[in-house]
Specification:
Length: 188
């Protein structure tokens, strides 16, 4: 039997995650059946589940990958920039559907909640580090604890995701983000 290169395995895994992201975004977790996953990835269930234990493992890997990408942007440009990017190019953010599905599953699935809490720390850490650097540089309010700022920005992000997902991405949301950004900046 011929050996498969690591590059080939990584490319196949990426192909599966990209297709699964579209499938979960369009159909939700429950509607993303194995048959639909096969259709959207162009691969058999055997090929898909060679890389992932089961559908839940696939979804968790996808959610973790999306959180990692988001954490990278947050670390360099901030959470408000992530939101601005989402407004400017909503079609580039297939993970919006993933984020909505994560929120639903966090509410309804205790096993998922446990697994996700272990994996979501990366985004929180990136946000905390970015806010700490901004506070040290004198750019952020110092009268509000960092964890409160994170809660506030997460709340705004969740609201923005819900607005975009419901088709209301236009009306003044850029101005709202200006207000959010101004509200966390240090007042001189």
């Amino acid at each position: 039997m011929p050996k498969v290169s690591e590059d080939h395995l990584a490319a196949r895994r990426s192909q599966i995650l990209d297709g699964a992201r579209r499938c979960f975004a369009e159909y939700g977790y429950d509607g993303a059946t194995v048959r639909r996953l096969e259709e959207v990835t162009g691969l058999s269930r055997g090929a898909i589940f060679h890389h992932f234990k089961d559908k839940d493992g696939l979804f968790l890997a996808l959610a973790h990958e999306d959180a990692t990408r988001m954490a990278d942007v947050v670390a360099h440009e901030g959470l408000v920039q992530v939101m601005r990017d989402m407004l400017a190019q909503p079609d580039q953010f297939d993970w919006l559907g993933t984020r909505l599905e994560i929120a639903r599953r966090l509410r309804n699935d205790p096993d998922f909640r446990r697994s996700w809490s272990q994996r979501s720390a990366e985004l929180t850490e990136a946000t905390m580090a970015r806010l700490a650097r901004q506070k040290s540089a004198g750019r952020l309010r110092d009268d509000v604890p960092t964890d409160v700022l994170i809660g506030y920005l997460d709340l705004v992000l969740d609201g923005l995701v819900a607005r975009i997902a419901s088709g209301h991405a236009g009306e003044n949301l850029s101005a709202v983000l200006d207000l959010v950004e101004e509200s966390v900046r240090r007042r001189d």
